[in-house]
Specification:
Layout (H helix, E strand, L loop, with lengths): L4 H8 L17 H27 L7 H8 L3 H13 L4 E8 L5 E6 L4
Antiparallel strand pairs: 1-2
Helix pairs in contact: 1-2, 2-3, 2-4, 3-4
Amino acid sequence: MKRSPEWVRVMNESLFDNRVGLSQNRGQSETSESSAGGIASVSGAKRRAVYQAIVASGDDGMTDEEMQDATGMAPNTQRPRRVELVRDGSVIDSGIRRNTKSGRKAVVWTRPQS
C-alpha cells in the first residue's frame, strides 16, 4: 500500500492521550494502577492504528471489516477503538454504506471534512 504524505505526517504525530476512554483509578492499588497504565498504552496504540488506517483511506473511508483487514486487528479489538474515535469526533459516519465480504451493508467511516 502506497503511503500518502498525510499518512506519514499522522504516523509521526502523537495523536492521542493513551488514557482516553479509561476511567480514573481512584485509590486503587499500585498494581491496579500499573495494569491500567499498560492497558491504556495498548489501547492508545491500537486507536492510533485504526485512525491512521482511516486517514490512509482518504475520501473512500473504511468499513469496520476493512479496518480489521488493514490493521490485522480482531473485530473485538478494532471496533471499540473506532467507537472511541467516534466519541471524540475524530471519525464520523460518512453516510455511505458498502458491502462486506458476506454481502451485508456496512457503515463507511471517515474523518470529518476540514
